[in-house]
Amino acid sequence: MTTIVSVRRGDQVVVGGDGQVSLGNTVMKGSARKVNVLPKHQVITGFAGSTADAITLRDLFEQQLDKHQGNITTAVIQLAREWRSDRVLRRLEALMLVANKEKTYLISGSGDIIEPEDGVIAIGSGGNYALSAARALVDNTDLSARDIVEKSLQIASGICVFTNDNLTIEQLESAG
């Protein structure tokens, strides 16, 4: 269980997540890194769900990015297609958020590909808490995307028992 949130504001896109790894109702680790940058393609990934499954999916996504010359949209579509149709991959239990300087997507094993309308999206057990907080902050403050991600994760960690306040936050900025 986890919380991952992404906010796109101005020329910034930020993805952040907490560090808690739970097994049932037990906290197994408090400092996991569930948000990473794929530097070759300048893409941030974040995952919720089974760690091994998420790492497998991140690796497959990176392969798709390589295959499609960094085209995030094509890579997302091909990953979702492969994830849904492959007998082994179909059993993977995770959700992924991916973002580059232009696009943000949520990808699921059921074939869902969601691009947020308002530049804000979240996944995981505390995702709805972080999403609500982030939307309120976007609509009612002039905070940066990074500050909104940090504050929304802090709010989620105060409500969701499967979310802690050991945060990893990654950011990309457009050249324009």
Give a structural overview.
The protein is of the alpha+beta class. Helix content is 34%, strand content 31%. The chain has 4 helices and 11 strands. A 5-stranded antiparallel sheet has the order 5-6-7-8-9, with helices on one face. It has a 4-stranded antiparallel sheet with strand order 10-1-2-11, covered by helices on one side. The longest helix is centred in the middle third of the chain and has 17 residues, at 51-67.
Described by the principal axes of the CA atoms, the overall outline is: globular
State the helicity in percent bands: 25-40%
Number of strands: 11
Name the poorly predicted regions. Answer: none
Number of helices: 4
Give the arrangement of secondary structure elements.
Layout: E1 3-9, E2 12-17, E3 21-23, E4 26-29, E5 35-38, E6 43-49, H1 51-67, H2 72-85, E7 94-99, E8 104-108, E9 113-114, E10 120-124, H3 127-140, H4 145-159, E11 168-173
Task: Give a brief rundown of this model.
The protein has 176 residues and is α+β, with helices and mostly antiparallel strands.
Question: What attributes does this structure have?
Answer:
single chain, 176 residues, alpha+beta, five-stranded antiparallel β-sheet, four-stranded antiparallel β-sheet
